[in-house]
Amino acid sequence: MTSSSYKSVPPVLRKVHILAVGLALLIATFSLILVEYATLKSSLSDKLQVQMQIVASNITQTLDAGKHKSIENVLSSLSAAPEIDAVALYGLQQERIAHYVRNGQLPDMAAKSPVTELTVNTNLLNAEIWQPVMEKGHQRAVLYARANLKQLYRNLLWYIGTTIMVMLVTLYAAASLLSRLQRAVLQAEERAGFLTNYDTVTHLLNRYAFNQRFQTLLDEAQQKSSVLALLVFDLDDFKVVNDTLGHDVGDMLLRVVAQRMVATGNLDHVIYRVGGDEFAMILEKSEEVENIHAIANRFIEALAAPIAINDRNLYVGVSIGASLYPYDGEDAAHLLRDADAAMYYAKSRGKNNFQMFSVEMHHKSSNRLTLESEMRVALEQGQFELHYQPQIALPSQKLIGVEALIRWNHPQRGVLMPSNFIPIAEEVGLIVPIGQWVLREACQQAMAWKAAGIEGLRMSVNLSGRQFRQESLVNGVTQIIEETHMDTDLLELEITETVLMEDAETTITRLKELKAMGIHLSIDDFGTGYSSMAYLKRFPVSRLKIDRSFIRDIPLDADDVAITTATIQMAHSLKLEVVAEGVENQVQLQFLCAQGCDIAQGFLFSQPVDRHAMTEIAKARET
Ligand code: C2E
Ligand code: MG
Ligand code: MG
């Protein structure tokens, strides 16, 4: 499928078009010249007749008087007309009375029968005229004149010259117009062909071309009873790049990725761009299908290297899924669905890896789809609920706040925990409306508690990565705060360490905007990402939450003890409060108190509970 196949007018045919125009012009020119020749000739004979009539009327009187000399004078006056070669006047006995000759001979009148009527003869060189001279109805004599056609040919030549010039100019104009038109048509055809088959951003073949090719290869494989492998590639963090750095950078990134993929494959490996950040490749040879792991890993390695765009190093990575014909499916739709399922499985396995399709994946992927549509219904029908987990100040053990944690009261599957649906909501974008619901509900609850006399209870709300990167985040938060009349001093937003570090400079700006509204900010799951001290110092956050995994094995695990101790000291030196997550027992609590940890949260104090239970806990603690 090369672009040349779109050239529907072959060059030979284009030449034929121009030749046809030329031939038509030539015939037209030739006919014009013939018509002009005939016209010139007839006007010459007309002119000759008029001249002869004038002469005849001038000489009738002198004829009687026998003044031959004066007749000759009249005849020779015709010498003023350059085409007249000879003139003569003959009597009725064919005797010559007078003549004038400039060129050639006079005709032999003896051989000629008497002339009684006007006769005009023309050949290629001359025009001859015999004109009877009449007086009162009787013929008196015969006038003869011969004119050469030199002037006529000169005029004709001039006419031919001009006509040919005009014809050539017309031909040239027609040829260039024709070729310009053809070029425009050709370009339009090529462009249409390109758009149908190619992706305009990466210039790779597109989904349409992929579908066509895949079907052809499947038909061939069926006939030959051979195998095929379909690989589906999905970039891991492309959405992050698009959301945070804009679509231009996104497009540049896609182009580099496409180039890298083409360079990584060999000539048989045609790469198709089949969706936003999705690519596909078909392996046709059985030895390649056997080597599929090695081939896929080559692509993973190639895309793992950073991509430099606008002085930034971007890391994308790719998750690859594959399905095999005829083992995983017999038709294109099944094979695509299976390769997609394998690709999603690869993503769930920590991204940047390759998975072959298996039947279990099919269940998982159809689960995903069901879950997505069920989540939309859940939002509409109010199936989500917030639970609250107390946060306790150390060492006083005073209740100072709660963390809002979402639960889904699924009509068939019972209560679902966030790990069962938040990652999918994040992936498909539903996290944004869900997050707005959470924030609104949490703010309303905080204000309800305040109104009920439970003072100073801070409400911590989790923000997911996708929510935090939304351009409209600050506006959305402002709107909910206004709607719920939330006291911003009572609101804390938790953002995970990994999300904060993704694009630290943008993070700082965004955090500053939220901070300016009076909102408190904390770093969630601290210790699981790779924070740079330089940035930690610059983030306008007030709390750092040590991840549960570091608290769990305290005091038995020496590493966790060391990390927790160091984190508390480091946080204090940065003037940050420390919250320990997942505190389950007294030993952990004592250790944390001894290290000067500011706040604790965990099952030791309470599991996350619904708002009624939380209200009870709060009231009980106050008294
Ligand atoms: P997280 O923000 O780190 O929340 C703390 C998680 O630790 C909660 O899990 C909580 O139930 C659990 N936890 C608290 N104390 C203990 C303990 O002593 N032992 C043990 N084993 N676990 C404890 P949960 O509710 O399942 O939430 C899991 C994660 O889901 C949260 O981690 C948070 O990242 C996310 N999440 C929850 N609600 C929301 C939400 O409304 N929006 C967003 N974006 N994410 C949410
Ligand atoms: Mg949290
Ligand atoms: Mg946490």
SSE map:
Layout: H1 11-65, H2 68-76, E1 84-90, E2 96-101, E3 119-122, E4 126-135, E5 138-148, H3 150-197, H4 207-224, E6 228-235, H5 238-245, H6 247-264, E7 271-273, E8 278-283, H7 286-290, H8 292-304, E9 307-309, E10 312-314, E11 318-325, H9 332-348, E12 354-356, H10 359-381, E13 384-393, E14 399-410, E15 414-416, H11 418-428, H12 431-451, E16 458-463, H13 465-469, H14 473-484, E17 491-496, H15 497-502, H16 504-516, E18 520-526, H17 533-538, E19 543-546, H18 548-551, H19 558-573, E20 577-580, H20 586-595, E21 599-600, H21 611-622
Parallel strand pairs: 11-12, 14-16, 16-17, 17-18, 18-19, 19-20, 20-21
Antiparallel strand pairs: 1-2, 1-5, 3-4, 4-5, 6-8, 6-11, 7-8, 9-10, 13-14, 13-21, 14-15
The structure holds ligand C2E and magnesium ion (2 copies).
Residues 524-525, 545, 581 line the site of one magnesium ion.
